[in-house]
Amino acid sequence: MLPRTILRSELVRHIEGLGLLVEELREWARRQEQELAQRAMALARSEGILAERQRELEAALREMQEQRLELAGLAQQLQAERAALEARREILRQQEEALAARAALLAEREELLRERESRAGSAGGRRPADGGAPRMRVVDTPVPPPRGAESSPGDGTAGPQPDTRAQAGGEDAVPAGPTPEAVLARVIGPLGDIQVVEAKVRWGEGAAETS
After folding, report:
1. Measured on CA atoms in the order 78, 84, 87, 89, is the torsion positive or negative?
2. From the centroid of its chain, how far is CA 106?
3. Where are the alpha helices (DSSP H) in the chain?
4. Is residue 172 part of a domain?
5. 66-125: per-residue pLDDT in tens?
6. Same domain, residue pair 5 and 73
7. What's the Cα-to-Cα distance from 182 to each of 112, 117, 125, 137, 199, rounded to whole Å?
8. For 193, which of 43, 106, 127, 189 could close a Cys bridge (C-beta 3.0–4.6 Å)?
């Protein structure tokens, strides 16, 4: 009988130990389940954060693409403006060359006028009554050139013009006063253009009178 009692007591002890072990396993399982739930919640939060970050990155990518298109359009506009500026620069350069050529031509005409004036003075031209210097040989006038005067292609001068007052009425009239003298007249047009023609000047007591 004694061995049965001992076996029974051992079985009861083992059963109680197994019950404690089962309770510990159940507690461990509950703790694991709670940890897994917490990890799942953390993963869900991380997934939401990652999804939001992905949306932000996609929006940033679209914005960068739009900015790239805007920059490409701006680059094309700048290239067009640069081409326009280059064309304008070329036009200004051509205008500058034309002005320089015109200035050189005017300087050449001035030199020609001075040479002709010098030759006319050395040839004993008409001189004023109050001194030894020759009278004016170049007349500046703001009126248009005499009708029918055309510039020759050589030196910019025109041929002699007849005395229009001497032809009034279709008859040869005798001009009053001093005899007209042929001089070079520098005609200044309304736009500032200069034309050199030959005209006749009557030297009187006052200002010279051209015809």
Report:
1. negative
2. 31
3. 2-122
4. yes
5. 999 999 999 999 999 999 999 999 999 999 999 988 888 888 888 888 888 887 766 554
6. yes
7. 16, 12, 10, 9, 6
8. 189
CB 166 within 8 A of CB 139: no
Q: Is residue 36 domain-shared with residue 90, that is, in the same domain? A: yes
The tokens for 131 are 């001194």
Q: Which residues contact 70 (CB under 8 A, 6 or more apart)?
A: none
What's the pLDDT band for 47 if we cut at 50, 70, 90?
very high
Beta-strand relationship, 194-202 and 209-210: antiparallel
Residue 204 pLDDT: 56
Please tell me whether residues 42 and 119 are part of one structural domain. yes
pTM (2 d.p.): 0.35
- Provide the domain limits for residue 180: 136-210
d(CA 104, CA 96): 12
Q: Kindly give, in sequence order, each residue whose CB lies less than 8 Å from that of residue 144, ignoring residues fewer than 6 positions away.
A: 187, 189, 190
* Domain tally, the chain: 2
Residue 129 lies in a domain: no
Kindly report, residue by residue over 134-143, the tens digit of the pLDDT.
444 444 554 4
Residues linked to residue 82 through DSSP beta bridges, in sequence order: none
Inside any domain, residue 86:
yes
| Residue 130 included in any domain | no
Distance (Å, rounded) from C-alpha 84 to C-alpha 73?
Answer: 17
Q: What are the backbone angles phi and psi of residue 42, rounded to the nearest 5°?
A: -65, -40
